[in-house]
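Q: What does the assembled structure look like for these inputs?
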Amino acid sequence: MLIRLKGGRIYDPAQKQEGVVSDIYIRDGVIVNHPESASLADVEYDITGKVVMAGAIDIHSHIAGGNVNTARLLLPEQHRNFLARKLNHPFSTARWSATETGYRYALMGYTTVVEPAVLPINALDAHLQMADIPIIDTAGLAILGNDDYLLRLLRTGVAQNQINDYVAWTLHATRCLGLKVINAGGANAFKSNARSFDLDDQVPEYGVSSRHILQTLQRAACEIQLPHPVHVHCNNLGIPGNVDTALATMEAAQGLPMHLAHIQFYGYGNEGNRGFSTAAAKLIDGFKKHPNITMDVGQVLFAQTVTISGDVIAQYSRRHDASPNKWVALDAECEGSGGVVPYCYKESSFVNSLQWLIGLEIFLLAEDPWRLFFTTDHPNGGPFTMYPFLIRLLMDKDYRLECMAQLNQEAVAMSLLKDLHKEFTLYDIAIMTRTAAAQLLGLADRGHLMPGAVADIAVYTEQADKAAMFGHAALVFKNGHLVVKDGEIVGRRNGTAQIVQPEFDKQIERRLQLYYDQFYNLKLDSFAVADVSFNQSDNERFIRHSCGTPYLASHS
Amino acid sequence: MTEINEVPSPFCGAGTDDLTIQVDGTSLKVIKNGCAINTPAFEQPLADTQPRVNGTITDLATAVAKAAAILQSAKQPLLGGCATDVNGMRALLALADKTGAVVDHMSFNNARSNILTLQDSGWMTTTLAEVKNRCDVLLVIGTDLESFTPRFFERYLWTDAAMFLENPVQRKIIYLGQAPSGNASSSPTGQDAQVFECTQDQLPEAVSVLRALIKGRPILAESAGGIPITDLEVIASQLKAAVYGVVTWCVTDLRFDHAELTVQTVCEIVKDINDQGSRCSGLPLVGKEGEQTANQVCGWTTGYPARVSFAKGFPEYDPFLFDSQTMINAGEVDAQVWVQAFNVNAKPLSVTVPTIVLGRSGMAFEQEPDVFIPVGTPGIDHAGHAFRMDNVVAIRLKKLRDAGLPSTAEVLTAIERAV
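A:
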C-alpha cells in the first residue's frame, strides 16, 4: 500500500529542510521516493500547512525495569484514576502503566524511547516490561561500573581486550543498545558503607578509582565500536559545587566521545548566601571546549514526581527530602543499586527554582542542538508528559518570563535567564529531538524523513502556543501505520527493541558461568533475555543495528 | 527416559536452577538438588488432561465457550488465585480489563503486610547474591527460614566462596521469635544459631523494644515479649557491629493481627542502623505460588500490586476492599475464575458462585466447579518467566515434558477472545 502525506511543511535537519513544502510517500512501513505519478497513492492524507517531522526520540527516560516498577508500587496514590473513558484497548485507562507510557509518548509524536538504566541481572525484567509498552520502539542501556566482575578484572589489571569482551558480552546478554555508567564504583562502595564517592575515590576492597572504571569502560565502548558513546551519570549528582565534577569528567574523557546525562543536576555552584548558585555558564564554557562531549539536560519542571536512580549514594543522601515521606533503597545482586525517592518540585522553593533556571540556562547557552539533548530525566526532573511545556519554554521568551515571575525571586535574581533572549526554532527542536538524537544513538533508520527511513512520522498543527502544538500531534505514523489522529490513539501495535550485538571472544561465557556458579548460584541461561513478548517472536521483537564509529557531532 | 540438567524451579521463590530431573514420559523425578518444596512439586503425578464442564469431560473449545458465557453474564467477576507465570498474568489482566473483574492473588493478605509497609514508609532491601557475598550477620524475625526455603543456608550462607568474607562459615545467624525447625542454620563447623524464642503474640513487643534499644532509648523493663532485655541487647549490638547485616522475615509466618506494623518496625530498624553509620539491609521472603510474578506484572500493567478491580473501567487498588474472601462472603461476586498452575491443593475459596478453575492437573474438588480446565505448570509443561523473591531477577522456566496441556495464557486468551 502506498500512502501519501500531501503538502506538509517538512522540518528534517538530515536534509537541511526547514519548512520545505513537500509530499512524503510511505510503502510497507518505510519512507520511499516520490513515485512517478502521484495518483498511484492508495491512501492520501492532506496535511497542507501542517508541520511534519520524523518521530521524536527520547534518549534518556526511565520507563521500565525493577526500580521503575518499585516506584509504581511505592506510590499508588500518585497515579490513582478517578474517571476514565475506556478506549476498548486493554489497559488504556491504567495510569503510569506500560500502556500509558506508550500512548502518551505517541500522542506527543515520540516513537522511540531509551530506558537508560538496565542492570544486566535485571535485563529480562526490563525487557518483559518494555515488550508491554505499545506503539513506541524502545532500547536499553546496560549498566556496568559497579559490578563485581568488572571491578575484579580491574583490580587484577587485565588487558583491555578482556574488558572489551565483557562489555560486548553484556550488550549481547542484555540485548541493549549502549553502555551506561552510573557514579562509577559508587553503588558498590555504598555497600561497603561509603556515603559519598568522587571521581578519584577508590572502591573499598578493590582499590580502583571511579575515574579508572569510567575511562576503561569508555575505551571499551570505543574499541568495540558502540555507536552511542558511553552514557555517563557523573559522581556528586545534585551537590552544590559539582560543576567541577562535571568539568573534571569532561577532561577525563581525554578527547574521546562521552555522553553526560541530565547535566542540569551538575550545573551547580556553591556561592551566594545559601551556598547554592548557578554554574551553567561555567559548565557550558567547558562544554564548548570539549567537542567530544554530548549532554542531555534533565530539566526540572514543577510537579509532584518521583526520583528513580541507580545512584544509591545520591538517593540515600536525599532520603530526608522524600515527599511523601517514604523511600526505597536497594542493593542489587553485587551489580548495582536502586534508590526511589518521591519528590515535589515547587516554584516557591529557592533550590527548585534555581534548578529550573539552571536547566534553561544550559539549554539556551549551549548553542549546539547537535550536542545538547532534550530530556527531563523522566521522571526525575519531571514526567515526560510535561515535555510540551518545556518545548514552549524553549521557543517562547515571553512565556519564560511569565513563568519566572512565579518563581522564588531570590533564585531569579541569581540567574542569567532573564537576559537570555534566544528562542528555539522548529528546526532546532527537530535537530535535538529527532535527527541528532538518532545519530547519537546510532539509529540510522530513523530521526529523518529520507527514503529508506522507518516511517515514524509526526504531523503537528502549528499554533502560537507551542505546548498545545506539541502536546497533541495531529497525526502520528509508526512504521507507516496511523496510530494517532487529532490527539487521540487510533491504533495499538507492538513496538520493537533496538539492539547492537558487538563481537566478542566466546571463551568469556565459560569463565562467566564459573564465576556465576561460584558467587551467584545462577546459570547464565536462567536469566538470559528471551521470549519476552506476549505477541511477538524474538525475531520480530529485536531490531539489530550496526556497530560503528561513536557519534561525534560534526554539524556544529 | 531423559535427564534434564540445570532446571529452574518456579516453586520455591528462590530461583533455584540447579535441579536435575529425570523425565520418563510424563512422569518426573528429581534426582539431584531437590528439597522438601521442589521435589514433591515437580514429582506431582500427571492426572486429568481434559477439561470438564459440569463434571463431564469435554474439549477445550467447549470449556472455553462455557467459561466465556459465565463471565459474559456476570456483573462482578473475580479472577483469583493468580498463581501462574508472566504470560499467564498478562492474559489474566487482559481478561480482567475486558470483563471488569477484580484481580486478587491468593497470598495477597500475607503480601499486604509487606506492601503496606512499602507504601507507608518504604524500606531498604537487598537480594540473594548480596546475602551470599556480603552478609556477616543474619537476623531472622519470626520465621522458620529452612521450611520456607530449605536450601537457603546451603546456597546463600554456608558457601565455599563469598566475595567479601574470608570465612563464610563464621557468619552469625540469630533467630528472634520462632526457633528453627531443623539444623540447617548450624554452620558446617558446628556453630549453632543463636535463638531468642518468643511466641507469635509476643513478637511485636520484642521487635519494638529491639528497635528502641538500637536507637539508644532507655528501657526500664527487664524483659519484652518474654525475652530478657539483656538478650535483646545482644541482638542489637551484633546487628550494629555487623559489616553488612541482613534482617529477614516471611510474612506468612507472622500470623498475628496487624503484622504490617511489626514489618514496618523491622524495616525501620534497618534504616536506623544505616542512619547510625553502618550497613544493614532487609530481605523480605516471598515468592511462592507466583506471588512476586503476579505483583510485578500487575505493577507494570496497572500501576498496582495484584489486588485490583477493573469494575469502574479503570484499575483501582484497595488492599482491603478487593479481598476476594470478603467480597465472596458479602455476596459481591457473581462468578469467579480461579487460576492455580502450581499447586493441586490450592483450591478456590468457595464455589457458591459459578466457578471456572484453571488448575494444575490432579486438582480434586469436593464440589465440582462449573468449568475445570487442567493447565500446564510453567517450568514443567511449558516455558515461561517467573520472578524470584528479591524482584531483581526474573528467571526463564523450561519445558520438561509434553503432556498436551495448554498454558494458562493460552486458555485465558481464548476465553478473553470469546467474551
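The first strand of chain B starts at residue 2 and ends at 7.
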